[in-house]
């Protein structure tokens, strides 16, 4: 059984306010209480705990060593009480205690983290669980009820999604890769002679495996592994431009001069698991994502009009 405390939050609040405000009179003004009320609360706290919180040094009252500990602990407890009230208010208003998202790894990571940070600044009490997916992974997470919100390259049957962003893929390899030593535009026949780096579909069924260009391929589990392998000259792949911007800028990777297909485009969709049952937290994250995209990305990225180009999401 949890023992009952001797002191109250009001008494701790009085102590913390007196220290933060710089005196009893200032604290009383901030809390809209009388100075005698503040003085009584601190003295009562001292009496109940059998300690002295303040001592006189010269003409000024300062915290004792025990008072410093009590102030720090009390301030933390007051902040926790405020957080508890915020959590209770959010839950009473229907805010979810936890939000689960499945987001394809080709979505710009920096943009996603900015959106999540903005949401968490507004609602720090809501936990975030992020599932990073490739190809059919988002579909599977939605279909199995593992997430409230998904971002993926297709909308699974029975769900409704809105176009969110167009992603540009660039066929790339290390500048010293043999493909860059060939003269003239490269053909599919040229690519078939070299290793293709592929990121594995995270869906268990792997229903949307891309048609392979050749039998020479490495399949890896992470985009970072594929990019690292390409930077070491171990193969080529089509990468979302945002994922390899640094490598392109620093010369670690170089676009392949293909005769056709050097660029591919994919549309990512924002998909609710159940739009009618979606809570305010998931709705707010979706709103922030759209706001961030409108603010940080050119308008050409925000339409699902692909101008007749291939929209199949490559995974390598």
From TrEMBL:
Keyword flag Ubl conjugation: no
UniProt-listed InterPro entries: LysR_HTH_N (IPR000847), LysR_subst-bd (IPR005119), WH-like_DNA-bd_sf (IPR036388), WH_DNA-bd_sf (IPR036390)
**Where's the HTH lysR-type domain?**
7-64
Keywords recorded for this protein, A-Z: DNA-binding, Transcription, Transcription regulation
Gene3D superfamilies per the UniProt record, alphabetical: 3.40.190.290, Winged helix-like DNA-binding domain superfamily/Winged helix DNA-binding domain
Report if keyword Transcription is assigned. Answer: yes
Q: Which protein family is named in the record?
A: Belongs to the LysR transcriptional regulatory family.
Name of the protein: LysR family transcriptional regulator
Species of provenance: Candidatus Methylobacter oryzae
């Amino acid at each position: 059984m949890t023992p009952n405390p001797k002191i109250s939050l009001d008494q701790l609040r009085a102590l913390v306010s007196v220290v933060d405000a710089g005196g009893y009179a200032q604290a009383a003004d901030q809390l809209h209480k009388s100075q005698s009320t503040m003085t009584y609360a601190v003295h009562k706290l001292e009496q109940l705990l059998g300690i002295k919180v303040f001592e006189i040094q010269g003409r000024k009252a300062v915290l004792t060593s025990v008072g410093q500990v009590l102030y720090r602990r009390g301030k933390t407890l007051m902040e926790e009480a405020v957080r508890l009230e915020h959590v209770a208010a959010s839950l009473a208003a229907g805010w979810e205690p936890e939000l689960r998202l499945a987001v394809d790894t080709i979505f710009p990571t920096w943009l996603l983290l900015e959106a999540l940070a903005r949401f968490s600044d507004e609602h720090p009490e809501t936990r975030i669980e992020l599932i990073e997916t490739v190809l059919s992974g988002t579909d599977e997470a939605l279909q199995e009820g593992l997430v409230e919100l998904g971002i993926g390259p297709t909308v699974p049957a029975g769900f409704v999604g809105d176009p969110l962003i167009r992603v540009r893929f660039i066929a790339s390899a290390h500048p010293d890769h043999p493909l860059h030593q060939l003269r003239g535009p490269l053909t599919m026949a040229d690519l078939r002679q070299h290793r293709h780096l592929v990121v594995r579909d995270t869906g268990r069924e792997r229903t949307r495996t891309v048609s392979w260009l050749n039998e020479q391929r490495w399949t890896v589990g992470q985009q970072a592994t594929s990019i690292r392998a390409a930077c070491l000259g171990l193969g080529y792949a089509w990468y979302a431009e945002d994922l390899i911007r640094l490598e392109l800028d620093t010369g670690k990777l170089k676009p392949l001069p293909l005769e056709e297909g050097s660029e591919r485009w994919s549309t990512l969709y924002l998909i609710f698991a159940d739009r009618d049952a979606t809570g305010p937290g998931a709705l707010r994250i979706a709103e922030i994502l759209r706001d961030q995209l409108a603010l940080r990305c050119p308008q050409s990225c925000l339409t699902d009009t692909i101008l007749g180009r291939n929209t199949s999401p490559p995974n390598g």
